[in-house]
Specification:
This protein is an alpha+beta fold and 121 residues long. The protein has one domain: GTP cyclohydrolase I, C-terminal domain/NADPH-dependent 7-cyano-7-deazaguanine reductase, N-terminal domain (GTP Cyclohydrolase I, domain 2, 2-Layer Sandwich). It contains three helices and four strands, in the order ββαααββ. It has a four-stranded antiparallel sheet with strand order 1-2-3-4, covered by helices on one side. A hairpin with a 7-residue loop joins strand 3 and strand 4. Helix 2 packs across helix 3. The longest helix is centred in the middle third of the chain and has 16 residues. Ligand LV4SOB2L binds next to helix 3. InterPro entries: Dihydroneopterin_aldolase, FolB_dom, GTP-CH-I_C/QueF. One of its GO terms (cellular component) is cytoplasm. It holds the Pfam family FolB. One of its GO terms (molecular function) is dihydroneopterin aldolase activity.
């Protein structure tokens, strides 16, 4: 199994459980591991044969703009479902960090793993 990576992707969204958080946008920082088989793309040198990390990053930025969840859990779960459906991703690991939410921590957040991990061949 191979992975396409997106690391430290910053997106701005309305997110938070407190009243003051409903009136501002805050930055989330995302890490993604996306399972795929890179061999067809490597053999053909064709972007259409792989997961386009630029297109996926753009979709994530749009998703963040479109939604205003309270919890990072909801953001992560709904984003994972959207990406899996729209890009045909069999398995992914997604970390959503909310920097600055807890002053004493560099970041807080969640990691989720969804789907069936393909066998290595
Ligand atoms: N497990 C979670 N805990 C908390 C969340 C969250 O989304 N998931 N959110 C908050 C507040 O919005 C906080 O980020 C404001 O600083 C508190 N705990």
């Amino acid at each position: 199994m191979d992975l396409v990576l997106i690391e430290s992707l910053g997106v701005d969204t309305v997110i938070g459980v407190y009243d003051w958080e409903r009136t501002i946008t805050q930055r989330l920082v995302l890490d993604l591991e996306l399972a795929t088989d890179i061999r067809p793309a490597a053999a053909s040198d064709d972007i259409a044969q792989t997961l386009d990390y630029a297109a996926i990053s753009q979709r994530i930025a749009g998703f963040a703009t479109e939604h205003a969840f309270a919890l990072v859990e909801t953001f992560a779960e709904r984003l994972a479902t959207t990406l899996r459906e729209e890009f045909g991703i069999a398995w992914l690991r997604l970390t959503v960090r909310k920097p600055g939410a807890v002053a004493a921590a560099a970041a807080v957040g969640v990691t989720i793993v969804r789907g069936t991990r393909p066998e290595a061949t």
